[in-house]
């Protein structure tokens, strides 16, 4: 009789130490963190956001318009709805864009065509479409021409971050019309964000100390032709940005583009921010602002700045010696620290860069890096600025916020007479 091998039952095997199997085999998947630090009284009593509000829940948001309502509107009703929401301006009473002398009359319905404005000047009498000079809505014909109701529904889907390919599949709208609207929307947002960011500043009212997080991120890279490179061994160019945000205030997100030097082809990244770059940024945004700065352990952030108290965490797995044994120390993402302010007052805060890291994830989810949007191109900069605009208005009705944006943009184009 030969040997018979009995297979060991599956439940006799040890539980996996990591991975999805480990997660499923745990007895209690909802138990709280078991570390002494997380269970401590000081940890529970110290909030991460000392001021401001928490991030809103997306499942509780409601916008003013719906896709079913917008797509069912006829041309005249769509014009009235868009005018009420601020997405389309009125040309009535404005200077004629053709003759620059006459005054534009009211919107009129025509028996054989679509609603139009008309110049009152005797030598002009030009008809003006409601979409004239508008960056988002068009009055074209052919495959790219669609009614205003359909265009408004397409814009609503785009504001809800529906992918462009999905919008094309669901609505059967020409893909070039969708891409044109997307491109123009990012350019309008880019202009608004750059103008608004110049007027922003950090710090609280009445010299109140605020928590500000800072970190840098890389979005893309490209090879530099050898004949254009200063050093033939360093031919990799990077799209690197630095971001700062005040805790509890998403509309304070500031993004600044860096120009790191080229690196070797197989380099994992451009490296941390340089000291010279950080000094210029800190003097402009943080100097004398009464800020508790949270960052990682990059050397440049250790620069002493008047009016700034610094706290950092180490985002790196390190090998340290405990007694006579070398062990691996896990990265630290959040820790409690007692900060002594210049006046002598002590404040207990949680040091970390969790909010700005989520901001980078928010931006990267909205980037579409391709042969057109690449390192150094206008498109990738516009996409980053567009994502920054969405982060500023997180938790708000993006339809109405876009209406305010269009009202501001078109006010610089339409001149009232």
From TrEMBL:
In this chain, the stretch annotated as Disordered covers 35-54
How is this protein named in the record?
ISXO2-like transposase domain-containing protein
Give the organism the record lists: Symbiodinium natans
């Amino acid at each position: 009789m030969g040997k018979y091998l009995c297979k060991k039952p599956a439940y006799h095997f040890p539980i996996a130490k990591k991975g999805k199997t480990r997660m499923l085999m745990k007895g209690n998947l909802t138990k709280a963190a078991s570390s002494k630090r997380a269970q401590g009284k000081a940890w529970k009593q110290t909030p991460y956001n000392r001021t401001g509000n928490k991030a809103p829940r997306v499942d509780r948001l409601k916008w003013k318009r719906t896709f079913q309502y917008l797509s069912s509107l006829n041309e005249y009703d769509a014009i009235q709805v868009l005018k009420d929401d601020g997405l389309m301006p009125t040309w009535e009473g404005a200077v004629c864009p053709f003759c620059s002398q006459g005054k534009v009359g009211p919107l009129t319905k025509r028996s054989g065509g679509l609603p139009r404005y008309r110049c009152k000047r005797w030598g002009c009498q030009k008809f003006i479409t409601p979409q004239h000079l508008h960056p988002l809505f068009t009055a074209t014909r052919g495959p790219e021409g669609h009614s205003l109701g359909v265009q408004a529904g397409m814009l609503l889907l785009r504001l809800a971050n529906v992918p462009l390919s999905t919008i094309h599949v669901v609505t059967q709208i020409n893909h070039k019309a969708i891409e044109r609207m997307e491109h123009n929307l990012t350019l309008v947002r880019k202009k608004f964000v750059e103008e608004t960011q110049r007027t922003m500043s950090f710090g609280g009212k009445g010299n109140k100390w605020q928590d500000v997080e800072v970190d840098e991120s890389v979005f893309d890279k490209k090879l530099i032709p050898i004949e254009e490179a200063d050093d033939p061994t360093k031919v990799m160019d990077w799209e690197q940005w630095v971001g700062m945000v005040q805790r509890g205030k998403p509309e304070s997100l500031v993004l600044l583009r860096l120009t790191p030097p080229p690196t070797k082809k197989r380099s994992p990244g451009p490296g941390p921010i340089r000291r010279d770059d950080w000094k210029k940024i800190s003097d402009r945004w943080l100097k004398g602002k009464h800020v508790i700065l949270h960052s990682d352990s990059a050397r440049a952030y250790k620069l002493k700045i008047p009016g700034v108290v610094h706290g950092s965490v180490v985002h790196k797995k390190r090998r340290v010696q405990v007694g006579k044994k070398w062990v691996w120390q896990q990265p630290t993402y959040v820790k409690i620290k007692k900060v002594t302010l210049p006046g002598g007052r002590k404040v207990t805060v949680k040091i970390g860069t969790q909010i700005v890291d989520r901001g980078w994830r928010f931006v990267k989810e909205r980037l579409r890096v391709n042969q057109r949007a690449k390192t150094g191109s206008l498109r990738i900069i516009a996409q980053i600025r567009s994502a920054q605009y969405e982060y500023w208005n997180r938790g708000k009705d993006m339809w109405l916020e876009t209406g305010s944006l269009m009202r501001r943009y078109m006010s610089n184009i339409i001149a009232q007479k």
